[in-house]
User: What shape does this take?
Amino acid sequence: MRLKGFKIKKGGLPGFGPTLGYTVFYLSLIVLIPLSALVFKTASLSWHEFLAEVTSARVLASYRLTFGTAFLAALVNALFGVLVAWVLVRYRFPGKKVVDALVDLPFALPTAVAGITLATVYSGNGWIGRYLEPLGIKVAYTPLGILVAMTFIGLPFVVRTVQPVLEELETEVEEAAVCLGANRWQIFRRVLFPTILPALLTGFALAFARAVGEYGSIIFIAGNMPMVSEITPLLIITKLEQYDYAGATAVASVMLGASFILLFAINLLQWWSRRYADR
Amino acid sequence: MSEPLMVRWLLIGVALTFLGLFLFVPLAALFTQAFEKGAGAYLAAIREPDALLAIRLTLVTAAISVPLNLVFGVAAAWAIAKFQFPGKSLLITLIDLPFSVSPVVSGLIYVLLFGLQGWLGPWLDLHNIKIIFAVPGIVLATIFVTFPFIARELIPLMQAQGNDEEEAAMVLGANGLQTFFRVTLPNIKWGLIYGVILCNARAMGEFGAVSVVSGHIRGFTNTIPLHVEILYNEYNYAAAFAVASLLACLALVTLVAKSIVEWKLKISS
Assistant: This one.
């Protein structure tokens, strides 16, 4: 065997230039330039016009609804997500593998399909709705329906961020706590909960961010009435259909700004989680 | 040391009830509704001309978006995982951008770029090129929303695998392409397959962004999700769920694929 004279250039492997170049080119073409179109179009509005658009009563009502309901849904998912992750990691029961796989269903299912299914199931004569309606709980076509849809959409996030942390927990710490006389609840509150807190907050933020921007799963079950049950993405589309480009752009740029803030917060939380895990 | 048996079963019960309300019941209802009027009506709904055109458009869109994003994903993962350079974190964050943007905003930015009142609108109109309210717009919006999937799958995988095997191949005389196809590709095979499956599932299922750019022109610019919306709004529930069940099956295939890939990755490590 003859070793060809090898040329590992400084930096190691070949192909850096072409791959990085293509990456930046494609990224700019598909993501950066179109996003900047939004920024520039917004900038073309005067400050006064912009503020008038984004603080009109109908828009503010949609912000309250969208962000408020998304927050509640993320809270529900935080609570039940930890429970589901705990049950999946710590206990055994028949069908556990199937349940574990199905937790990802909201990721994989197209939003329109989820939307019509939830709307049908929770409507007055739907499989779940028919039991709730006599109790006076109207879900479909109300903000409660929006909460249900947002909970569905954010369901996997908390479960999937908390699950790995629970799986890697060392039992020695728990056993030490037992030796020192702690009961189960104390162990949870003071040993386990602080460990999963960074992952929990990350999952919460991810679920919140996803719910805020969601469109397809929500519009079928929401009432879509302005000022009452109209989410911000729907409002943007309505303005577009009425050729109110300025209004649509202004509201969309607020949504984009919120997305960036959330993305930043999520990155911070993930960095915190990693630091916490390395200790 | 664990919880008492009663508490355990209570917790399992509550967790399963929660999942039941939000996952199991809707999933079961979906397939039941699809077949409510029998298998004959199910097949008729799918074979209906507008449905077939919607299926065709969805397949075409995925067939264009997924390979393009595949090439990008591999290139980006190679550049990011195998090399060190300043601004790497920024690049990774930028690649993740489409994930955090609302689908409606994703569609809107393409309307702002290519629509009649957009930047390129007048030029496109002059040359009679239709992008918005036509297939190219749908493809572009789909590429945007599925942009990060393959890259996100490959980057951590290739970072974890390191450079050793590739450098060994180089020492033994392989050039770049040989190294990639014979050393790297087999190692990232499962992550790549899963990324493609995810990318494809999202490409076929995207609703919000496509809704904004498509114009909903029946028979021309309707994808499967848009067609489902039309059927549902016409109160044609059985047909809507029949067509929707196609995508639901795709979703279940995706879940099965994920389990397989996770299993394969676990046994290889």
Q: What stands out?
A: Residues 49-82 of chain B form the longest helix (34 residues). The two ends of chain B are 31 Å apart (CA to CA).
